[in-house]
Design brief:
180 residues; mainly beta; four-stranded antiparallel beta sheet; 14 strands; 38% strand; globular
């Protein structure tokens, strides 16, 4: 997916996505060579606009990587902002998610083969309206999160779940994160 004006599957497998909800569009991406348009989602209202890519067996990966640029809104809402989520559709290992919490911490979650969620959290916080480069690696070696080249090694409790980020998760964890 290159997200250049559409949610088309550029691999040729026909797994095209679609916008759902309201407030979804394309906007200018970061001024970096090789980057084009960016997905833009409204952060107001009860049904937040989002893109959805249908489940396909090709997405049941035991290892892989993902990289993207993201930008925290200028006036972020007082709730976690989902960047991406992929449900496991009943498969273990499975679901993967990437969020920005209320404080601007990037949070990565992956369900391991042990059936438990494993989290990585950015070392720092995202400044509003500034593009950040995010890299994710997952597989038998464990789960890795990088934000602007800095490995996400925050350990401890962090607010993520629920309104106002009242719920909490545990950042850090086992070396293989249940992926081996």
């Amino acid at each position: 997916y290159d997200f250049e004006g559409s949610l088309a599957d550029t691999s040729g497998h026909g797994n095209d996505g679609a916008f759902l909800g309201s407030g979804s569009s394309f906007a200018a991406g970061p001024a970096i060579v090789g980057c084009g348009s960016a997905l833009s989602f409204s952060t107001s209202g009860s049904v937040v606009g989002h893109g959805q890519i249908p489940h396909a067996p090709a997405f049941q990966l035991s290892s892989g990587s993902l990289d993207l640029y993201l930008r925290r809104p200028i006036n972020p809402p007082n709730r976690p902002l989902a960047v991406l989520a992929k449900d496991s559709s009943g498969n273990v290992p499975g679901s993967i998610g990437l969020w920005i919490n209320c404080d601007g911490v990037v949070v990565l979650k992956l369900e391991g083969s042990d059936g438990n969620p494993h989290y990585r959290c950015s070392a720092g916080t995202l400044a509003p309206n500034v593009w950040a480069y995010v890299g994710v690696n997952f597989g038998p070696g464990g789960l890795e999160l990088f934000v602007d080249g800095v490995r996400g090694e925050r350990v401890g409790r962090l607010g993520l779940d629920g309104a106002n980020c009242n719920g909490d998760i545990s950042c850090g964890g086992q070396s293989t994160d249940g992926l081996s």
